[in-house]
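Exam revision sheet. Question 4 asks you to relate a sequence to its structure. Input first:
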Amino acid sequence: MAKICKNCEPECLQEIPGGCIPYTGESIPCLEIPNAIAEDSELQGNFVKLAKKYCQFLQDNLVNLGFLKGENEEAIQQSYVAVKKLIEWADALTTDDIGTPANLYCLADGISVSAGKITNRTLSWSTQPLSDGVNYTYNISEMLEALPSTFVLNGISVKANGNRNGSSRTLLASSTEPTGGFNLQPDNYPVNISTEIKLGTPDGELLLEKRISLTGDFAPNSYRSSFDITDLSNNKNFEVTSQTHFNEIMASAYCHIKQLYESLKNTEISDCEFIQYADGHINTVIQTHSSNLCDVLKRLSKIGNEKVTYQDCDDACGTAIREVTLQEALTLTGKDVCELLQRVKILEATVQELVTRLDNCCK
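Answer key, structure tokens:
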């Protein structure tokens, strides 16, 4: 290859770089190379081919970064510049900058973000027998201490209603403190204790309620009951503007479902004489009820065929005990009753005849 250095700088005489080789033909703007005169046609052709491919590559990799464009920057950038800017943008990104068009459907119905932020919705209470009644104590301070800093306690109301002076709805005691208690007399039972908490939130107000029925069990016991929440806020249907907001709603919905499950999992029940529960789990309660209901239905379907003990009596007052079905016992009893009624009628007729004869005899 001939070394051509026409009109070049003196430094090119020692070593000829590609930039010192002029050529004729079209300009290559993307490389800022104007047309010139070249004496090596082979070099010119190869170089132009490579240059055109490179320029086409640059053209094919232009990216519009209009949404990331700075004040003094062009919107159209090469791909390597775009990648760098996208990495810088993603590195500085927070969840508040990410929008989501997701449809929340029922997740936003009836529950606010504030309602989902209550991590502990339980009321601790206990009963302790006294010589003249029962001492009831309660504690909701644990839940109040765990509330977010943006929540405000608007009010507490604890009331006990029961029997007094002939009225079953008499107010026996009341309190507005997060912890407390009061004594109940045996003749106050049954007693209903209502606990209400009003919480101010950034969305509005939440009402937490729990009603406890004391039916006269004076044994010492400790319980933990879940509050029922009524959402009085005005932020139940959301317009999602950021990923953070969406995440909060999802977390609130999850907490809401979990707390509903917990409230069902441990059902407050009272044993009766004929039904005993192993525990308060909703599955145990349903299974126990189902089993007892099946037994009752089975007995009803066979009520006429159940075996009972029947005692026969003869005319000599002798007795014989045997096992017969309930229907047979009813039939035998009815037969005996009919025979007795017939004998009574005969006896009455005989007695009447004797009375008549006696009256005729004494005239």
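Marking note for examiners. Residues 112 and 133 are 43 Å apart (CA to CA).
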